[in-house]
Amino acid sequence: MKHRVVVTGAGLVTSLGNTVEEFWENIKNGKCGIGEITRFPLTDDYKVKFVAEVKDIDFTKHIPKKELKRLDRYAQFGVYAAKEALIDSGLDMEKEDATRIGMILGSGIGGLETLENAVIVAHEKGVRRLSPFTIPMSISNMAAGNAAIHVGAKGICTSVVTACASGTHSIGDAFKALQQGENDVIFAGGAEATITRTGVGGFQAITALSTATELDRASIPFDKERSGFVMGEGAGVLVLETLEHATKRGAKILAEVVGYGATGDAYHITSPAPGGEGAVRSMDIALKNAGISPSDIGYINAHGTSTEYNDKFETQAIKTVFGDDTKVPVSSTKSMTGHLLGAAGAIESIILIQALRTGFLPATINLKVADEECDLDYIPNVGREQEIKYAMSNSLGFGGHNGTLIFKKWEGQ
Description:
The chain is an alpha/beta fold. The protein is 33% helix and 18% strand.
């Protein structure tokens, strides 16, 4: 018997707010969380000017000041979002069996800022000056490990590393584990903090980032003038639990997870497979997993990175699955949040859940120049009121990692 899996809590850290309520209000209003880089001093070597930074956050709300110094920024984000999700869920950890509560919190890159600073210290001052926390702060499982400590989760504790699909795969893996009854509750999502000299410089080197000089032409998914993505940072965490467990404790249920698909392109390190072949299979698997047809999906939150090939091939993939004449509404909220890499899928899952709960579909903002190869309903510039029952999210990561999640509006058992 497979258990049904529901969402009972959510927490996040983003450039558009650090509570779900504030974040969602800004998403509904089409607010852009992108601005000029302030995390490090820019030199003439940087053609990239815009990112989506987290600026207004008091980490000490959830993390003691002394401990903050022992966590990389990405782990700080992950712990904060997990604690917010715990509060939102209403879980009383003193009454729970902690061995039945897990943590699956992914990251595409992990503690990049810590590694970057350590290399500088080792080069300039010698390895004896390295902090003993260098490795514990930098490895990519430490958001999960520290979040589990803060929450008190002693069940499964893993970290998915699949580039930009990490958050989606984390939620999908949690969904599967809960279906099998291996845990009662799993915190799942992603965390990322790559707005550093190396992070921006490295992505710039592979020409993946937008070098736009005007803010409203930087992150422009599906626009013909798109030239690359805008890097974001932050974290998103969902509390997933079996329906039986949620019902027994009288939890408020935000949505139900009903489908998950994961595939690999086996094609290229950075480019999606032509026609979005891997994404097609991922969506097909998720739909089959959910036991629904494409016509049941009321909204798709696209991966929509604002890169030439992703947007074109994802559009082709959606047409393959939904039909060339499909009218399914699609939007890329990366136009507002930037691309949070390993945290993107988690943040976008929260957007799906809010869309299902409120009957509002967010826009793709700053979409001005039509592209004949991107001709779906991208909800241009202004979101719309529309009741939906099922919503889908895609995440397509470097290395050919594809993930698709399907959520269902909660209407009772």
